[in-house]
């Protein structure tokens, strides 16, 4: 058994990340200036901005808006992560091509994708889930996993 103090790695660099809220104006439009300022403040504080996450209502945004958020983020900072979201429904099978499209949108802008669990991915068990991750990851430089409840 490994004791907690034996797992410590002194002087390792810790990467902190913070989800960036997508603000809206009083008229219901996205407040782009507010969003860009929030991304910049997050990076200036030493945290990596995380966009198109659940706090940014990624599941409620259309594809064009998700891409516009990526473009706005890329214009503000060099280092960011973004949610790779696949809109599916309970009972759907895993849509690997949709994950690839989502990851490519992020990676092509210099961001690190954060794979949101889809219904199809979460329906897989044990070794099938691991196999799906391995197949998809074979084409990507890097990505992060994300655990999210079924809501």
Order of helices and strands: EHEHEHEHHE
Average pLDDT level: 89
**Unreliable parts:** none
**Coarse morphology:** globular
The strand count comes to 5
Strand content: 5-15%
Number of helices: 5
Describe this structure in words.
The protein has helices at 32-44, 63-76, 96-107, 119-122, 126-137, and strands at 17-19, 48-51, 81-84, 112-115, 144-145. With 151 residues, it is of the alpha/beta class. The chain has a 5-stranded parallel beta sheet. β2 (48-51), α2 (63-76) and β3 (81-84) form a beta-alpha-beta unit. The model has no long low-confidence stretch (mean pLDDT 89).
Write the layout of secondary structure elements.
Blueprint: E1 17-19, H1 32-44, E2 48-51, H2 63-76, E3 81-84, H3 96-107, E4 112-115, H4 119-122, H5 126-137, E5 144-145
Parallel strand pairs: 1-2, 2-3, 3-4, 4-5
List keywords for this structure.
151 residues; 5 helices; alpha/beta; globular
Condensed summary:
36% of the residues lie in helices and 11% in strands.
């Amino acid at each position: 058994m490994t004791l907690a103090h034996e797992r410590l790695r002194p002087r390792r660099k810790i990467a902190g990340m913070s989800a960036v809220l997508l603000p809206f104006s009083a008229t219901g439009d996205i407040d782009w200036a507010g969003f860009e300022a929030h991304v910049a403040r997050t990076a200036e504080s030493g945290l990596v901005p995380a966009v198109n996450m659940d706090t940014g209502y990624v599941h409620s945004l259309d594809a064009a808006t998700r891409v516009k958020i990526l473009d706005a983020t890329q214009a503000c900072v060099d280092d960011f992560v973004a949610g790779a979201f696949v809109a599916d429904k309970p009972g759907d099978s895993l849509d690997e091509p949709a994950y690839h499209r989502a990851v490519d949108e992020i990676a092509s802008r210099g961001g690190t994708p954060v794979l949101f669990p889809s219904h199809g991915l979460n329906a897989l068990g044990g070794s099938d889930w691991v196999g799906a991750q391995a197949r998809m990851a074979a084409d990507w430089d890097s990505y992060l996993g994300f655990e999210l409840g079924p809501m």
